[in-house]
Amino acid sequence: MAPPARILVVDDEENIRSSLQEMLSLSGYDVIAVESGEAALKLVAGQEKFDLALLDIKLEGLTGIEVLAMLRQLTPETVVIILTANASLETAVKALRYGAHDYLFKPCKPTELQESIKRGLRNRQPELRQQALLHQLDFLASNLEDIRATLGGQKEGTSFLTDFDNTTVASPPTEDNPSQPRFLQRGRLTVDFLRHAVTLDGQLLDLSPTEFDLLAYLIQQAPRVVSPQELTINVKKYETDEWAANEAVRQNIYRIRQKIKEINNDIDIIRTVRGVGYTIEDNQT
Question: Which CATH number is 172-280 given?
Fold first, then answer.
């Protein structure tokens, strides 16, 4: 019988660190948990071998991104999953560029974490690792002009990580649709199609599946105004009359607006165009 996979947990919050260690140990993994990036690197430098690492992005001392970069050099065969409470697009893209297998929002569901770990361990197989490495090298080698070509034209002078205008990010595609880029940003909103999540200023919106699909569709179509009937067809997957479509969409829009207000009560992201439909506001200030 093969020995259990060894997992390194790096998190400076004791309760999270202990919970992860207990949960993963009960799942049959050999788990070591440390409180800092420095402690993690000391273990690796001392020839400790790990199949997978769970790495908090916001650590005292060395940041999670810095630790990730060093792990890629010291032990490139170790799969790294980033844990983040600050779900910013820049952080996610940096993590993926440095070779992270995945990133998860804190607190994440145990089933979601377990599934990501299983996928990561499967990806350690030689053939898959080679494919992943080739993908990473190709991604890192891409220059700004390549990105602009992929995006179909982007403004002169824009920075890849800091200046977005309805930008689709050239990062690993989703599992369900390999041709679809994983990230999409419009103003202060960011969509992660793989994680099925939307963030506002780096904070996760607690959306239902229907609310996610509706908001993601509006972000994709912006600045075009989308009618309620189009939303019911493309999001809810059924056709109905104008009145019923208005009522169904209006209720979902109201709930999304309330959840946006929980994060920032001073902005109005979704604009209603009376008699026409909805769009994402260009000026999200």
Answer: 1.10.10.10
